[in-house]
Amino acid sequence: MQTTSTRVGNTPDLLSGILNIEVRNMDKITEQDRLYCKQQQDLLYKTLDQIDHWYAIFKEEAEQYRVERHFSYNSNGKISMRDFYSFGNGKDDYSHNEFKPFDILNELVDKNRNANVSFANRIISYFNRTYNVSVPEQKIDERKLRMGFRPVYETYVDAVIEHLGGKSFRETAVEELLARFAKNVHPSCWCKTKIELKKDKIVFPEVIRFDDFYLQYNRCQINYNYGVNLENLCAGIAYGADDILCGSSDMIIHFNHNDVSVNDWYDLTTTNAEQIKFYKNGRIDVKFKDSATAESCFKRLRLDEITSKEN
Q1: What confidence tens digit (pLDDT) does each residue in 188-227 have?
Q2: How confident is the model at residue 90 (pLDDT cuts 50, 70, 90)?
């Protein structure tokens, strides 16, 4: 199919190029994705319209004090003045008790910012949650965010697609999962033992640590700083064993972070990885349905590559 673009002289129309990029990015998300984003945008606009309505009313009220107070508006719509809270002091009348709209105006500017930030975060969080990717939050400069601004969800969809870097959602999710797994689960450089494949088991040394305070009472509670290690281990096992991207400690049946048994095997909800066991020294063993499945998981998590490098 032949495509045409608007030109000025011999130069391609830049706007047409930008619009073509936006269209291509929109083609990379589903109709359900677009529906969610559009719904969020409609809800945001409804709230921003209400904020703008009240801002206009209180701004009109504030104008009557313009000469007396010599205030100005910042680029984001906030009131800026000297002696903000001393208005009316030193007068013989009672004007210092009168309602002044300045605080309300500034509060409405804050609400405008909060609504915009929440919208951006919801769009990004939706894609992160739906596709198990880790698109970073978008920063909004509150000093430049003007009243009356209406963001469009396509801006944040573009940020999501840019994060993918030409890969699919699944390719990106797998890459990020393996990176988190490598960071939090691989043994430290001073660890004497390495991750091992033993028939139908994979042995992970020093994945977690239990809180020393509770250990003295014979209670194994995972240290707060090591909870993420367990989550990333479970995510890796779910991917390596069952090719799914939603693994977490929730797949450990009857598991309690605050009271972990180091005597028994816990059953898993995954199909090919069947059980998991914890040890006081932080070691974790995962048992699979057979040796072939364990080896397949070992290779999918690229643990064989680490072993070969060390050898």
Answers
A1: 655 667 899 999 999 999 899 999 998 888 899 999 999 9
A2: low
Quote the pLDDT of residue 185.
85
**How far is the C-alpha of 65 from the C-alpha of 68, rounded, in Å?**
5
Taking residues 229-238, report their average pLDDT: 96
Q: Are strands 72-73 and 79-80 parallel, antiparallel or unpaired?
A: antiparallel
Q: Are 252 and 271 within 8 A, CB to CB?
A: no
Q: Which of 8-22, 57-71, 186-200 has the lowest mean pLDDT?
A: 8-22
Separation CA 240–CA 5 (nearest Å)? 47
* Strand ranges of the sheet holding 201-204, from the earlier edge strand across to the other edge: 196-198, 201-204, 284-288, 273-278, 266-267
Helix ranges, 63-152 (H): 66-69, 102-131
| Residues in Cβ contact with 113 at an 8 Å cutoff, skipping those fewer than 6 apart | 76, 140, 142, 145
- Stated pTM of the model: 0.81
d(CA 185, CA 232): 7
3-state class (DSSP) for residue 45:
helix
The tokens for 205 are: 């040394």
> Rounded mean pLDDT of 148-157?
96
Spell out the long-range contacts of 226-231 with Cβ–Cβ below 8 A and sequence spacing 24 or more: 226/282, 227/257, 228/184, 229/184, 229/185, 230/257, 230/284
Look at residues 225, 220, 224, 217 and name the one whose alpha carbon lies nearest to residue 284: 220
Burial of 158 (0-12, 13-18, 19+ CB in 10 A): middle
Q: What is the mean pLDDT of residues 90-113?
A: 83
Q: Please report the pLDDT score of residue 6 as a whole number.
A: 40
d(CA 205, CA 195): 6
What would you report as the CA-atom Rg of the chain, rounded to the nearest whole angstrom? 28
Task: Read off the DSSP letter of residue 90.
Answer: T
Exposure on the CB side of residue 26, measured as CA atoms within 13 A: 15
Contacting residues for 122 by C-beta, under 8 A, at least 6 apart: 40
